[in-house]
Design a protein that fits this description.
Elements: H1 3-22, E1 49-59, E2 63-67, H2 74-89, E3 94-95, E4 105-111, E5 123-127, E6 131-136, H3 139-152, E7 167-176, E8 182-188, H4 196-208, E9 213-217, E10 219-220, E11 223-224, H5 233-236, H6 253-265, E12 269-276, H7 281-286, H8 315-331, E13 336-340, H9 349-365, E14 369-373, E15 386-389, H10 393-401, E16 406-408, H11 411-414, H12 436-440, E17 455-462, H13 470-477, H14 480-489, H15 497-505, H16 508-513
Helix pairs in contact: 2-3, 4-6, 8-9
This protein binds ligand TNX.
């Protein structure tokens, strides 16, 4: 915001305060000071700096939200916060309404060019008894900041002596900024299809924990899940089944756009992945000329990997790939296109390299940056392309030598489809068992000697061979995805399992309210809420 707008806003704020202080009908407030230590709030991911001043801000029916009105996206952030306050407290908090009788406390969401706020997603929060002032450079930063506000609004009001209900927010100051600019999760909608509603619910959860990327694994041997107008059989045939022979499914282009818009409202980027040249059986069944493994392709409902490949020496394959990348890129506003590239066990090494280098050019021609699983580092890829590390140290070293940025998804630590332990109802264990503590207690910033300068961020992939419903998805994703949010946002000095585990235990009322069927790990002393699980599991 320009300085003059800022000053105007401050004047408005002061006027509101004076007005409200003079109001004769001012309600008597009874702030409960029993829980006013901002530093001991259960925020995840843990903010960079928190200073408590041990007072209370009363959120109640006399609270309003004001936002910068000329700065793009700020009013939408204010309205998003109002909606979430309504869902949690049933209060109708007005946004940018100038004449509110009996107004007493204000949440102000302000665009600021202050150089003290680092990065596009950084924010500052000043909470006093009368006001919450959230400053951010961009709407994305403001959006991350309102997640912090959501997290420190108590689940229940504490107003027994008051005529109206009050939710007390502890006062103090928060300075926050993410360690990594890329904080993602991946959802495999190919092995089992997940509906638009399921994906939106997952996006909602990711947003609350300040993620900014959802990578959709849209194609694999068992299914093709995105409508391509120029190649309609991909979804008609390739989308017709899934693991276990169930009915499959796919997103129309309109549905895909709807997912993107929903994510964008939450400042989350969708990254589409079309996995190739391996993991392509569903495409080859639909259009057999693509196939390069010499065997007549048939629909596949099993879970083995590494048997399919495109014919990487055929020009028509590249014409096909061009159409796919063109159509999906046109629908996707984000800068990335993920080409997969993993486990191409039946593609000859030279053919694989030839393919990756050609497809990289196609991706760039359509204005996108290429991401691929770590195997793509064996090709001579451009310095802007990004390998996603899932296990090969050798590939990571190649990437480092080329000076590339890497996305950290080590299977042994960050795979959401790994079982918690031998008793886990869903998941695999080829890489490891990953209990809730193991998922949290590692350092993406120093894993396998990969220097922090080469790390773009962290992504937790959820493969879906063993899960087909949202409840099963939630069982594997939560609570571990909550820990990964802290691994990618908070600095190493700010992370500590003993401290985290208490904050995690206190997520239970939120998870329950959201109807998220998390795995109730026995390592965590889950806070009771009206929906609490009775069954506690081992991990
Ligand atoms: C490996 S890791 C895969 C996926 C599987 C997953 C199961 C990687 C890039 N590929 O095809 O779904 O293991 O854990």
């Amino acid at each position: 915001m320009k300085n003059s707008t800022f000053i105007k806003s401050l004047i408005l704020l002061l006027a509101i305060m004076v007005f409200s202080a003079c109001t004769e009908e001012k309600k008597k407030r009874v702030i409960n000071f029993s829980k006013t230590d901002l530093a001991s709030e259960n925020m995840i991911p843990k903010p960079l700096k928190v200073t408590a001043t041990n007072g209370g801000f009363a959120l109640d029916e006399f609270t309003a939200i004001y936002t910068s009105e000329n700065a793009t996206g700020f009013e939408a952030v204010g309205k998003f916060l109002a909606k979430k306050i309504k869902a949690k407290t049933d209060l109708d908090v007005q946004v940018n309404v100038n004449e509110i009788p009996n107004l007493e406390t204000v949440i102000y969401i302000n665009q600021s060019d202050s150089t003290e706020i680092e990065g596009a997603e950084g924010y500052q929060l000043y909470i006093t008894p009368d006001s919450v002032i959230l400053n951010a450079n961009t709407a994305a930063g403001a959006f991350r900041g309102i997640q912090t506000i959501r997290q420190i609004i108590p689940e229940t009001s504490n107003d027994t002596l008051s005529s109206s209900k009050i939710w007390t927010i502890p006062t103090g100051k928060i300075i926050d900024n993410p360690q990594f600019s890329y904080r993602g999760s991946m959802l495999d909608v190919a092995r089992h299809f997940f509906s638009v509603a399921d994906v939106k619910k997952y996006i909602d959860m990711l947003a609350y924990y300040k993620y900014n990327v959802l990578h959709l694994h849209l194609t694999d041997d068992q299914g093709w899940r995105i409508e391509i107008k120029s190649w309609p059989l991909l979804t008609e045939i390739g989308g017709s089944t899934e693991v276990g022979g169930e009915s499959g499914g796919f997103y129309t282009q309109e549905e895909y756009k709807d997912i993107i818009a929903y994510a964008a409202e939450r400042h989350i980027l969708i990254i589409p992945e079309v996995d190739m040249p391996g993991h392509t059986n569903a495409a080859s069944v639909s259009y057999p000329f693509l196939n390069g493994n010499g065997i007549k392709p048939e629909l596949y409902e099993g879970t083995q990997v590494g048997k399919s490949t495109f014919d990487t020496r055929k020009d028509t394959v590249y014409a096909f790939v061009d159409d796919i990348v063109r159509e999906i890129s046109a629908l996707t506003p984000g800068p990335y296109f993920h080409i997969g590239g993993d486990e191409s066990h039946v593609t000859k090494k030279n053919d694989y390299i030839y393919f990756v280098e050609k497809v990289e050019k196609i991706v760039q021609k359509h204005g996108k940056i290429m991401i691929g699983w770590d195997e793509v580092a064996i090709a001579n890829i451009d310095s802007t392309s990004i390998p996603q590390f899932w296990g090969s140290k050798k590939n990571a070293e190649l990437a480092i030598k080329k000076g590339l940025k890497i996305i950290m998804s080590p299977a042994k630590k960050a795979y959401l489809d790994m079982q918690y332990d031998t008793l886990s109802k869903h998941g695999l264990h080829w890489a490891a068992y990953i209990p809730t503590d193991t998922a949290y207690v590692w350092s993406p910033e120093r894993y396998e000697g990969i220097p922090i300068e080469n790390i773009l961020g962290v992504e937790a992939p959820l493969w879906s061979e063993t899960i087909s419903t949202i409840e099963e998805l939630e069982y594997l994703a939560f609570p571990r995805a909550i820990g990964y949010s802290e691994l990618s946002w908070s600095t190493q000095e700010n992370r500590d399992w003993e401290n985290y585990k208490v904050r995690l235990a206190n997520q239970a009322p939120y998870l329950d309210r959201m109807n998220v069927k998390y795995y109730p790990s026995a390592l965590i002393d889950w806070k009771k809420s009206k929906y609490t699980y009775t069954e506690i599991e081992k991990d």
